């Protein structure tokens, strides 16, 4: 990891664009402050690897102790599984909202995420390749078991279908295409679930804000109404 590099304006802008493209629980206005407690870092990682993050382990806070607790939970439970070695000095700088520290961290985090995604894709490809080697033409399977007892068909239509099937091969390209579609759909489902959780959290935050401001709004309306009545009485 490159922890002592200097990022130019274009690199920083690309990082901020990347973060803005993710559906996080709150908007990022000041990165040093917003990422200081580590909760948004957990959300970023969960966006790509939902299986690594239990979001309830991370508590939003401005207290130094809770910030460090969040970060060291990430370091112990998540970073180690990603092979992501983050120096304690970097964590301390981020907790203290040191200018530029979050950008360097996010640059390295994005690099690690890209490598992990590439690694998982390669594993899936190897799995596909090993699966292909186990495929046989159905005619070969049927010839191998020729003479063995077979299940009786329920109708002439079913029997005809079986006879047609016996003369067909399992096409590897079709299988590979379906397998890839399944993998893509699984990834999309994971992303949708993550976005759903983020939206639910966002709605909870909005409801909380509404509940906080509602009494003040009602009180203000009541005061304004009282002032209007008082002015009307004075005019009379």
TrEMBL record:
InterPro entries: CH_2, CH_dom, CH_dom_sf, Spermatogenesis_Ciliary_MAP. It holds the Pfam family CH_2. GO terms for cellular component: axoneme. GO terms for biological process: regulation of cytoskeleton organization. One of its GO terms (molecular function) is microtubule binding. Gene3D superfamilies: Calponin-like domain. Residues 9-114 form the Calponin-homology (CH) domain. PANTHER family: SPERM FLAGELLAR PROTEIN 1 ISOFORM X1 (PTHR12509:SF9), SPERMATOGENESIS-ASSOCIATED 4-RELATED (PTHR12509). This is Calponin-homology (CH) domain-containing protein. It comes from Adineta steineri.
């Amino acid at each position: 990891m490159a922890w002592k590099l200097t990022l130019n304006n274009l690199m920083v802008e690309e990082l901020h664009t990347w973060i803005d493209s993710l559906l996080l629980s709150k908007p990022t206005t000041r990165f040093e402050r917003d990422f200081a407690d580590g909760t948004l870092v957990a959300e970023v990682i969960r966006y790509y690897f939902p299986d690594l993050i239990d979001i309830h382990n991370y508590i939003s806070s401005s207290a130094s102790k809770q910030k460090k607790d969040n970060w060291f939970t990430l370091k112990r439970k998540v970073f180690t599984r990603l092979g992501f070695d983050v120096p304690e000095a970097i964590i301390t700088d981020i907790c203290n909202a040191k200018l530029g520290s979050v950008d360097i961290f996010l640059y390295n985090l994005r690099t690690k995420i890209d490598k992990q995604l590439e690694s998982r894709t390669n594993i899936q490809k190897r799995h596909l390749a090993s699966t292909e080697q186990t495929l046989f033409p159905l005619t070969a399977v049927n010839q191998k078991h020729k003479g063995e007892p077979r299940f009786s068909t329920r109708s002439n239509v079913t029997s005809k279908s079986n006879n047609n099937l016996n003369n067909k091969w399992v096409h590897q390209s079709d299988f590979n295409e379906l397998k890839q579609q399944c993998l893509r759909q699984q990834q999309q489902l994971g992303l949708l679930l993550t976005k759903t959780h983020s939206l639910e959290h966002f709605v909870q935050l909005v409801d909380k804000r509404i509940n906080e401001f509602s009494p003040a709004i009602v009180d203000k309306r009541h005061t304004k109404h009282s002032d209007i009545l008082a002015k009307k009485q004075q005019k009379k």
